[in-house]
Fold ATP phosphoribosyltransferase.
Amino acid sequence: MTKIRIAIQKSGRLNEDSLSMLKDCGISIDNGKDQLKANARNFPLEVFYLRNGDIPQYLRDGVVDIAIIGENVLIEKGEDIDVVEKLGFSKCKVSLAVPKAMKYGSINDFEGKRIATSYPNTVRNYLNEKGVKAELHIINGSVEIAPNIGLADAICDIVSSGSTLFKNNLKEVEVMLKSEAVLAVSPKISEERKKILKKIQFRIKSVLQARQ
Ligand code: PRP
Ligand code: MG
């Protein structure tokens, strides 16, 4: 039997909400802990637990057919990947932040500054649009510590509750984009699997309606 292959985040904020979405869709997954792959018991679906940042490439290659992923990751690494549903959870912003003590006037204040980020493409595009030149330092996590250790003058990262910024004495000064979890589709998905996708989309729509 043909199964649709879905990628979801292995661990982190999206993981739990993605699994509850599938559950609310009536899809129950055999969840052996530490398994990177699992099957649904009552639906032709296979789950792959992957790192967020790797998911766009898996979709592009057609190794997975669909994914639940943050829009922000697609904007950074997968602008070529189609989104078929917005899922209404894991809402966040991708923002620029500076030390609280810094006087901030406008985006021009970033000229010549060093910005630490895990979202280099997003920041570069944003600054290019504004005609601002800055130096990017790409790091993969704990970005907010960078100004405190002298690695950078500012940061660009995800802001959800704002508590990480607060704890690190930073303030949000520019919101570059707003994001939420979405259902994304591989450009290589087969016709047969598209039919399974349609069923999932139908269920997602009713879940979203019920959640309102
Ligand atoms: C994420 C993100 C921000 C923080 C935002 O980091 O990179 O740092 O959450 O959430 P908040 O506004 O609610 O504080 P995470 O904790 O996932 O760790 P990482 O950056 O080391 O991957
Ligand atoms: Mg972080």
Remarks:
- The chain has a mean pLDDT of 96.
- The helical segments are 13-24, 55-61, 71-77, 120-130, 163-167, 191-211.
- The pocket of PRP (ligand 1) is lined by residues 12, 141-144, 157-164 (CB under 6 Å).
